[in-house]
Amino acid sequence: MSAGRIPPKNERSLQVFEDQARVRYAERSAKGYVSMVRSFLEWLGPIVLSDVRPQDVQAYQMHVYTLRKKDGTPLSLGNQSNRLLAVKLFFRHLVKRGDVLSDPAARVEYPRREQRLPRGILSREEVRKLLAMPDTSTALGLRDRAVLEVFYATGIRAGELAKLKLSDIDTEDRVLRVLLGKGSKDRHVPLTRASVEALEAYLVHGRPHYRKAASSSWLFLAERGGKPYASLLNEIVQRSAIAAGIEKHVTCHTLRHSIATHLLKGGADIRHIQILLGHASLHATERYTHVEISDLTKALKRAHPRGR
Prior knowledge:
The chain has helices at 8-24, 27-44, 54-66, 77-97, 124-131, 139-154, 158-162, 193-206, 230-243, 252-265, 270-277, 282-290, 293-303; strands at residues 169-170, 175-178, 187-190. The chain is mainly α. It folds into two domains: 8-97, Tyrosine recombinase, N-terminal domain (DNA polymerase, domain 1); 124-292, hpI Integrase, Chain A (Orthogonal Bundle). Helix 6 packs antiparallel against helix 8, helix 6 (139-154) crosses helix 10 and helix 11 crosses helix 12. The termini are far apart.
């Protein structure tokens, strides 16, 4: 099937899907889904959505498997899965609206993805050094310290932290409310004493010095007073890691992986960690148990009769 111009009717359906995606999903996810659905519609060419059959979607699935990057290598399994997920979400949306009678993408299966272990886990000492880096004598340093403490205290995603508003924080009860996290789910997570102290210092002595602070509802503000995006949050984490002399590649997600690992080592129930991280299934959280192989290896060398 050759790609072609998107029929006006399909274009209108895409626009409605885009409007709903902006409400239901995180900004980055919504843009990605819309872009991937547009690629699918361009591949469909003149076929209107009401005429799409399961065979058409299966043919598109095979097309996705044959796509190549600029260097000639295949798309990653994650990229392939995301493209198919976008199509499945699109048709579910069309079925709910009554635009199509049946879902031609219902039986499409994702390629099997290898469950990779988290990389670049920080030690507790490395985290301690990282958190101590921001200069808390400045408004910028107070913000950065609060950002790092919240990341490490809660394991929150960068996109979730960027969307936090003042009303989502309760420093008295030490609770953080994450609204419309991944999968459009809300959750409440506890804050540590250190993170509450950093937040209170930022709110009292740091945030008021930012532009538009009085009129903005965002908890954390960029230097010009706007919403902080993931690139800024990663910059905060990486800048502090470099200053702390940490040679590992450190991102916001590194802190998420690190707190999960540290909690597991400390004896926390894996189901509690699942709730904290906002994982939809326990399977996603279980990969942190594999990180413990390093500790197991050390124990065997120390205690096993044949290990010494």
